[in-house]
Amino acid sequence: MALFRDGRARDPKWQDRAGGYFCLTTDDGTLLLLCPFGNIPLGKFAKYAALSQEKAQRLAAHPEHASSWQSRSENDADLRFGGAIRANGYIYSFSGLPELGDEAVMLVTALLTGASENERSQRAIEDIAEMSRNPFFAPLRQEAARRQMNTAFHQDE
Length: 157
Prior knowledge:
The structure is a single chain. The protein is α+β, with helices and mostly antiparallel strands. It has helices at 45-60, 99-112, 119-131, 137-155, and strands at residues 18-26, 31-39, 84-87, 90-95. The radius of gyration is 15 Å and the shape is globular.
């Protein structure tokens, strides 16, 4: 995942983490899309696909929650991680990065697919990032905005 190729590579949690599975469901958990992204290590395809769906289903089962961070387990053996968010009438979920990386990618994805057009939705996304104290959201959001500007600039040429 090119957006995370800075100092995070030195953090052991980011070792060999350059891809995963994106899962999009309706707000009630009906699967709409399950898609691999980036470079997924051999042997991790099934795990990341299952975890991305589990996060979305768990969030769907808690309609009062905005993020799977709210029902995550502190015990990694329980396999209940953050990384899914509720926005724009959908549940966006990712698995393959450290859980706050998964969440940051989904927060920015939600912004890029409609939440940025609505101030209330944009604030809800910012609230999710604040709730989990996500250190990756702001830099990823800035990088995505920079890339969008570059793309728009080159299209006008």
